[in-house]
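Hi there, hope your week has been kind to you so far. For a while now I've been wondering how a particular protein folds. I'm sending you its amino acid sequence along with the backbone structure tokens. Could you read through the record and tell me how the tokens relate to the sequence? Take your time with it, there's no hurry, and the full record follows here.
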Amino acid sequence: MRISIGDMSIFPNSTTLVVGSETNTSAYPRSLPQSEPFRAFTHNIPSGRTVTKIDFSAANLTFSGMKAVDYFGDGSFLNASTPGHLPGHLSALARVTPTTFIALGGDTFHHVAETSISTDYFWSPDSSDGAFDKLSRAQQFFVISDLPDSFAADPVTAQISLEKIATFDADPDIFVAVAHDSSLMSSIPYFPAYLNDWQASGLK
């Protein structure tokens, strides 16, 4: 099974690491046996780093059926539980204007067609140029793989998380960005530019 890895040691110790409470924070061994449990890190977390584990079981907010935590307590940044890819996987919803958000989906899905049903790419029987018929094509084109080489540790749970994130993609006030959407590389501005005006600029 493929395993997603990340090296958080490249960030300075002043950077707080925020993970879901079920995240395995131990590092990968040099040689990874097939029986090795999923781990999210390639290096040990350096001493002195603050690690915040979010316990979604105690969350009192729900967004699109997902348990959520208001991280700063002011509605500007919500962490949402999206397990399945790995235990403890989480996503975020960042408010960029009073009425618009950017959803950071992380590894909730790995191909845009797992959430998109755009007529630009996928046609249904009653669609025409510029007019997409949702009734004849209401499901995502792809689903999370449940084969042995799936990107998901728990494909069933991952599919549920994907379907919840997909509701954000259908909302005109939410722009969804995920880790492996290569189409974003040629369409969004890079740091230090901002995406706050994504809706006004027609980016979605």
The chain has one helix and eight strands.
